[in-house]
Design brief:
The protein is about 25% helix and about 35% strand. By secondary structure, the chain is α+β, with helices and mostly antiparallel strands.
Length: about 200
């Protein structure tokens, strides 16, 4: 999967996962490794922002490990993966949201690498939320996904297109939770230019 002779770029090598079309597509997502942290409430709150910061601290600790005196087995140069989140709750009441946000990790990451990343981050970028970060393997399986271009508050329109695609092709959702992958920084650029991968989990009806 990875060519260790050059820097691994997920945007170039995993377009089917991270750069879908702006129309619904059926796909199967395999098991992958993540650093994850869960919570509840409005994603505009400071707690959410602080948890995102803790996740990125861990992710970059892995990326920069060779400069900190430890090179994991099979390590290779790569671009840090984007922030993702699995969400549930009432879209009209953001305080009702439950979420697990995460950053995918390369295949060479194991529990020893996770432990070392935690130690490095606790030393260099301490956060009260580091103790809540877990190392997980998650398999989304059969799913329908689509690129959403625009503000987060406009996502219901895109989910409606995905629901119609599912109905027309004989699929139904297995859960009301959904995954979002954030390809752009919400703090940069206009909201109508934001790019987010939306994914729902399905089975054949």
């Amino acid at each position: 999967m990875y060519n260790v002779s050059m820097k691994y770029e997920w945007k170039k090598s995993e377009k089917d996962i991270y750069l879908p079309k702006a129309e619904p597509t059926l796909t199967t997502i395999p098991k992958m490794k993540y650093f994850t942290i869960s919570g509840k409430g409005d994603p505009n709150d400071k707690e959410f922002s602080d948890k995102v910061g803790a996740l990125y601290g861990m992710a970059y600790a892995v990326r920069m490990m060779p400069r900190n005196g430890f090179t994991p087995n099979n390590y290779f140069e790569y671009t840090v993966y984007p922030l993702e989140g699995v969400w549930s709750g009432d879209a009209s009441d953001k305080s009702s949201f439950s979420y697990t946000i995460m950053i995918r990790q390369p295949d060479f990451v194991d529990r020893e690498v996770y432990r070392r990343a935690l130690e490095i981050t606790q030393r260099k970028k301490p956060s009260p939320y580091l103790s809540e970060i877990k190392f997980d393997e998650i398999e989304d399986g059969l799913a329908i996904q689509m690129l959403h271009v625009g503000a987060y508050d406009d996502e219901p329109q895109t989910f409606a297109k995905m629901a119609e695609f599912a109905k027309e092709n004989g699929y139904e959702r297995t859960t009301e939770t959904h995954r979002e992958i954030y390809l752009t920084d919400p703090n940069r650029g206009a909201p109508d230019k934001q790019k987010t991968v939306l994914r729902i989990f399905v089975k054949k009806s």
